[in-house]
Specification:
There is one protein chain. The protein is mainly alpha-helical. It has two domains: 41 residues, no CATH class; 108 residues, no CATH class. Helix content is 56%, strand content 4%. It has seven helices and two strands; from the N terminus they run ααααααββα. Strands 1-2 form a two-stranded antiparallel ribbon. The protein is globular. The chain starts with a helix and ends in a 9-residue tail after the last helix.
């Protein structure tokens, strides 16, 4: 019995040291990640990363395939930015090219000049896709919430120059 208690204590100490070491290195790499000019991204666990993405881009379903691609080292500036800040309209188009494929997005309008056409085309592309598990909503959802995308980026009345 004493040996079992000793083993449990050693395992507990190992976990505490491992956790402290992990937190130290995670802080170090997160500080590096904050320097946007570096070509690297520090990933949290799947649900933690989804929460970071949702904070800036709530229209995006950060599904497991996206996380896995990022874990495997696929590098694209848009994927580096999704957990840092809201994407620009041009970056949303680039994200769709990654998500649906360049061939499927042939003729996809520029959202900066034709928002309605862009939204219509994206909806048609999503209709061909299967629903994906959304870790924030805890159920399957489309890749993109068109309602949230329109709310955040849709054409809003503004200043018109004549």
């Amino acid at each position: 019995m004493l040996q079992l208690i000793s083993i449990v204590c050693v395992q507990a100490l190992y976990r505490i040291r491992y956790k402290r070491l992990f937190v130290y290195y995670q802080d170090f790499y997160n500080d590096l990640d904050d320097q946007l000019e570096l070509s690297m991204d520090v990933l949290d666990d799947f649900c933690g990363e989804a929460a970071e993405v949702y904070e800036h881009n709530p229209w995006m379903n950060y599904a497991l395939p996206i996380h896995r691609v990022r874990e495997m080292g696929f590098h694209d500036r848009v994927l580096d930015m999704i957990d840092e800040r809201p994407l620009t309209k041009g970056e949303i188009r680039d994200y769709c090219l990654l998500l649906f494929g360049v061939n499927q997005c042939d003729g996809l309008p520029d959202p900066s000049t034709d928002w309605e056409g862009f939204v219509t085309n994206v909806q048609q592309l999503m209709n061909k896709e299967e629903l994906q598990w959304n870790p924030m909503k805890k159920k399957t959802k489309p890749w993109i919430s068109m309602k949230k995308l329109n709310k955040q980026y849709g054409n809003k009345p503004g200043c018109v120059l004549m």
